[in-house]
Amino acid sequence: MESDNDVLLIVWLMMCTFLVLLMQAGFTCFESGHVRTKNSINVALKNVADFCISAACFWAFGYAIMYGVSYGGFFGTTGFLYNETDNGVEMSFMLFQLMFCSTSATIIAGAIAERTRFSSYMIITLITAGFLFPIMGHWAWAGRGFGAQEGQTLGWLAQIGFIDFAGSTVVHSLGGWMALAAMIVVGPRKGRFTKSGGVIQIFGYNLPLSALGTFLLFFGWFGFNGGSLLAIDGRLPLVILNTTIAGAFGGLSVLLICSGQRSLSGIRFVLNAVLAGLVAITASSNMMSPLDASIIGAIGGLLSYWVTNFLERLKLDDAVGAVPVHLAAGIWGTLAVAIFGDTAQFTHPYSRLEQLGVQSLGVIVCMTLVFGVGFSLLKIINYFYPLRVSSRVELMGLNYGEHGVRGELFDLVESMKGHSRNKDFSHPVEVNDYSETALISTEYNSLLQEIDKEFTAFKENESKLTELAKIDALTGIANRLEFDETFEREWSLSRSGGYSLSLIIVDVDNFKNYNDRYGHILGDKCLILIAECLRKSLKRHRDLVARVGGEEFAILLPDTDYESVAHIARTIRDDIQDLAIPHGASSAASVVTISLGVASVASDANATKGNLYEAADMALYRAKDDGRNRWRKVQV
């Protein structure tokens, strides 16, 4: 039967257990608020699922590996499928440590949110909670638990004097290292970074929810650190005071930096800084003065700010800032034990420098175990079983893509896609007056009415608009689109009707020099005069002149034989020269001239439309090579 002191301790440990469990709710709120609406349910469910997996693993074998009779200080060998029913103190301690295990695992969820498969995250949780946390916990904390036998071997890190009071390394850095490994393997969210190296900020849908999560975590931290004393004595108020001071100064340090930033980024930085201050003091809240705690917390908050920006420069995408908060501040808090801690409370008679060496070794060991092993395992698993969702699922959101949850916003977007796809704007979307999308739906329907009116008018005038689209805006004659359509039609008619077809390609000589000398305004006027002259040269309704390039024109002459088209080309050349448009920059003439390529195809010729155009183009280049202001003809 437990003594009164044992009962009091059991009650205190159970209260702390409940407080640490409340941190799971804090993480759920914090991470759900940091992601976009389309992924919020997925993130929340992952937080629930990782607790269930962590609890099962820790009960089945995690507690045994972490606190069972030690094999050389490396892992426990007893207590599997924990079945103690008589020792209330030990059961309370086991439950308390189970919450630590779930806390370490859930850190990873936020870092790789919005692009990781639910099943993949379960695998990551299993590795973290079932293997990495118990092993690292044994190395640092074995022999500390209430179930430990007297004289039991300590974990090998504890043997050499490593200090981590409540888990800056064992819980927080461990989760941070695994989060970093997963981030690298999974990669950044779509659109997070541009190809040119820019950073696109992706903001969550509900930062007030994240702020609530921050306070839930803060509240739970009192149990996290307070329960780690494993006793109820005069040290408890100091632990709680240091925890409070560190968290407050962590947030204050970044609040001063971000006070002038009117953006969501500043708010996120402050929320993360509060948590970073709490993480930093976790390793030593039992052995620091409040003044030391304020410095440790402030530096932890600043580190979270700087590391967030540093990760972005490395193109590493941490959706909620888990690595800056838990890894960076966790490392700092572990090293701060040697820098600020009361040397009388060191477990070995070390100097500060010697203790700093031991603390640094603990950090390196955690990195080697968790990041080294974790990254290798995830890389192998990802090769055979991709950890990331498809691009399509990521775009539509993991709420629907992973769990089939169709939100009101998703249904509204699908209706919008239907309007766009079917080009039918006459049917409005359904409006539920009690939904969060009611106002958007109502305004969208008003917009639909206006679009439907405009679209109807557009359809009525489509024929006219199509005709206008075939006119060159500068010269008023046909453009390349009209020429291509007419060329295709006349070619088919000439082949079926049995008559010849001729083509003249016209190029203004030395037009670049003209533009350079007189400017674009006079250059445009020159093209307008030439186009009008070409248009007047045509005598039949079916003949077509078009501007097909900058200073290049094409004339299509159906049912015109080889000799007739040669006469037309000669006349056009002379007419343009007779315009006497001054051209002081021309090397060949003092007025603007043209070169022409003429090609004809007989009704029975075995040729293609492309052959005719190529022949006219080749004739044009021959005319230019012969000195410009000339025409050359080819029979296809």
Describe this protein's structure:
The chain has 636 residues and is mainly α. Helices cover 64% and strands 5% of the residues. The protein has helices spanning 4-34, 37-67, 88-111, 118-141, 156-159, 168-186, 207-226, 236-258, 264-281, 290-313, 322-340, 352-384, 391-396, 398-403, 408-422, 438-460, 462-468, 480-497, 511-518, 520-537, 562-578, 609-625; strands spanning 501-508, 544-547, 552-558, 594-601, 631-635. A five-stranded mixed β-sheet has the order 2-3-1-4-5, sandwiched between helices. β4 (594-601), α22 and β5 (631-635) form a beta-alpha-beta unit. α3 (88-111) runs parallel beside α6. The longest helix has 33 residues, at 352-384. The relative contact order is 0.08. The mean pLDDT is 91.
- Provide a count of the helices: 22
* E-strand count: 5
Mean pLDDT: 91
* Beta-strand residue percentage: 5-15%
Biggest β-sheet strands, sense, barrel: 5 strands, mixed
